[in-house]
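So, can you check what follows?
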Amino acid sequence: MLVEREPNGALDTHTHPFEAKALILAGEILIRTEAEATTYRVGDVFHLAANEPHTESYGPAGVRYLVGRR
């Protein structure tokens, strides 16, 4: 699924009932989990376990990524 998020946007702490793996196609995203905070840019891949609490912050150009769910 293709996901696009607005420039400088953010989502507060939340979870998903599925595992997610995503490839960044444009822009950047900062994902904070209980373990770490990592910024992902074009070509990077991120993985989130099902029900893993995290926040999301999007860069000045927003972010576009292709995500698979399981």
Observations:
- Residues 2-69 form a domain with the Jelly Rolls fold (CATH 2.60.120.10).
- The two ends are 12 Å apart (CA to CA).
- The CA atoms of residues 4 and 64 lie 4 Å apart.
- The mean pLDDT is 98.
